[in-house]
Amino acid sequence: MESGKVSGLQEELAQTRKEIEKLETEKLLQGDEIRALKAEARSYEDEVRLLNDKIQRLEEQTLLETPAKMIGKEVRLRYLERHRQRIGRSIGKLGYERIKCGDRAAHRGRPVVDAWLCLTGLMPDREVYKDLYGVDLESMEQWKHVPEMIEITGFRASLQSEGRLTADFQVLFERLIEVAKTYFSSVDLRAAFGDNKTLQKLQGEMQNSYDEIVAANLRGRQGFSSQHSSQAST
Question: What predicted TM-score, i.e. pTM, was given to this entire model?
Fold first, then answer.
């Protein structure tokens, strides 16, 4: 009787052990499944992150290529409208406006587009960029979303390319760059142009200086043209 009771308990204990082993095995399998799912989720996260990075790069490239394409279009329209003039066509107000836009596109500084040309290797001589714009490519990459910096560096390049950069303008330019470099983010610098009196004063002085240089050059051209016309008529 007692032996039968012991035998029953032993069977029950063995069955319990089997159940425990089964539960432990299931727990291990579930753990493996959870780890596999987590690994799969991480791989999806990495893939999504890579795709987002790719989208961001494509968006940035599009933002840079769009103005470059616009400039190219303006230059080519100027070329065509000028030829229409040469063969006696009436180009009208639109034609003259296209010629003006093409002149601006070809001869004025475009710091963001020119930086893109250098960074993509289309213009391998990076030193020419700094000589024109007075800043290196890395700085412009940082400031490309600050309209005031784009405008000011564009002024400098326009003057430098035509040999009209004055010492007074350069002094103001260097001072502004010195102040701009105290801001570690483009967001802070952009905001600073709204409340920093020093930056606002320098920007205004540089705008005035640029306008005066351009106006003086225009008067010089008009004077030369008038003198040339009077000499031709005598």
Answer: 0.60
